Amino acid sequence: MTLRRILSTILLFVVYLALQILLARNVVLFDYAFCFIYIACVLLLPNETSLTWLLMIAFATGVIVDTFYNTLGMHAAATVLMAYCRPLIVRAQIDVPGMEARIEFSLQELGVGTFFRYVFILALIHHTALFFIEASSVSLLIPTIIRVGASTLLTTVSIVLIQFFTRN
Fold first, then answer.
1. Of 76, 149, 88, which Cα lies nearest the Cα of 118?
2. Distance between CA 22 and CA 10 in Å, rounded?
3. How big is the CA angle at 45 (ends 42 and 48), to the nearest 5 degrees?
4. How far apart, in Å, are the Cα atoms of 110 and each of 64, 113, 121?
5. d(CA 22, CA 18)
């Protein structure tokens, strides 16, 4: 990775975290759909990032969000799980062998359908873990499933729209 690529990745990390903490924290639709665009910090990392670095970055991202949300590690746990599943999802979605090493995760590179599916699946993993850790009760199963679905859709659409309106 070049120095320019590293600096742009760090800037992307800071921008998405700032957007989450300052803006998206207040985006809640009907008390069910929450917007967690900070997961894009992990989703948009280059594919050549090793799993160890990916997990450490995901943990740091989750801890930063936990600090501002006062959630005691829930975001860190969900983000690390999502980062751990990311290589599996990438291998399952890319059909050409050996092609996954050269992939850049952006709307322009992957196309709308593949990028939407990639973000949706990983956001679903993240939100499922996050909301079931938060609920910690089987009696809240139906409201938790509704929150997972609505929040996954809102987060996915938000990340795709941000990618659509930014140049990579």
1. 88
2. 18
3. 130
4. 29, 8, 15
5. 6
Task: Tokens for 4, please give them.
Answer: 């320019």
Among 2.40.128, 3.30.300, 1.10.1760, 1.10.1660, name the CATH number for the domain at 3-165.
Answer: 1.10.1760
Quick one: three-class SS letters along 106-124? CHHHHCHHHHHHHHHHHHH
Q: How far is CA 95 from CA 43, 99, 107, in A?
A: 19, 8, 18
Sequence ranges of the domains in the chain: 3-165
On the question of pLDDT at 97 being above 80, the answer is no
CB 156 within 8 A of CB 120: yes
At 105, list the tokens.
Answer: 């995760």
Q: Which amino acid is at 18?
A: A
Sign of the Cα pseudo-torsion (142, 144, 147, 151, in order): negative
102 falls in which pLDDT band (50, 70, 90)?
Answer: low
What is the pTM (predicted TM-score) of this model? 0.89
